[in-house]
Amino acid sequence: MKRALLVTIPWLLAAGPPAAGPQYDHEGRLLRPRGYREWKFIGANYGMGYSEHAAPKKDPTFHNIYIQPESFREFAATGRFPDKTILVMEVYRAGTNASINRQGAFQDAFLGVEAAVKDEQRFPEKWAYFNFIGGGGKEREAAAAFPKQACWSCHNEHGAADNVFVQFYPLLREARK
Ligand code: HEC
Question: Which of 29, 114, 118 gets mutated to test ligand 1 (max ligand atoms within 8 A of its CB)?
């Protein structure tokens, strides 16, 4: 009994890795994260474009961003995301003309998800980026990591903390105040 207590207490005190960590197939592709709608919702963005000279988007989308609750708590306490953190970004087409709506936009067709994963042993740059939005409205079940230049570099250079665009997610911004 005494021994069980000694073993249990340090485990309770340590924050520990997120319960729902990244899963891969035998080719090392990330499996599409499941159950993320039960995680912590940290913010939503509309129609953002990242390149300076681009024309306004014809088809703006909404982004909804979720993180595992354990990673949220660790970030709030330390300003760092623990190993095995996943951020899921849902993408929705914006709708305008429907029902009684005459102004503004709502989240219409679901297009799929992208994911950012911190896996320190697996990825030399610690973070890797994935897109599960398939052609023809079909979601991909598994996705390979993009090369560093495609995603990581911008996230690393411009993300406010540890590769993540904390500056655009109100719950992460507030957690660090
Ligand atoms: C030129 C800069 C840039 C590039 C390149 C880029 N992103 Fe992002 N990404 C952003 C910004 C800004 C946000 C936050 C705002 C938003 O889009 O909602 C973001 C947010 C994300 C998020 C939400 C979690 C986070 O890290 O903040 C995911 C997931 C993501 N991007 C995936 C990707 C993938 C996959 C690629 C490569 C195919 C990619 N990004 C390339 C700028 C970039």
Answer: 114
What is the model's pLDDT at position 7?
Answer: 52
- What pLDDT sits at residue 131? 98
Q: For the chain of 177 residues, list the mean pLDDT of each consecutive stretch of 10.
A: 51 67 98 98 94 79 98 96 98 93 94 98 98 90 97 97 98 92
| Per-residue confidence (pLDDT) for residue 46, from 0 to 100 | 97
Q: State the distance from the centre of ligand 1 to the C-alpha of 84, rounded, in angstroms.
A: 18
Give Cα 89 to chain centroid, integer Å.
5
Token pair in block for residue 153: 């570099």
User: How far, in Å, is the centroid of ligand 1 from the Cα of 158?
Assistant: 10
In this structure, which residue's CA is closest to atom 7 in ligand 1? 151
Return the residue matching tokens 């340590």. 14
**Whole-number Å distance between alpha carbons of 82 and 75:** 8
Residue 27 vs residues 15, 39, 140, 172: alpha-carbon distances, Å: 31, 27, 15, 33
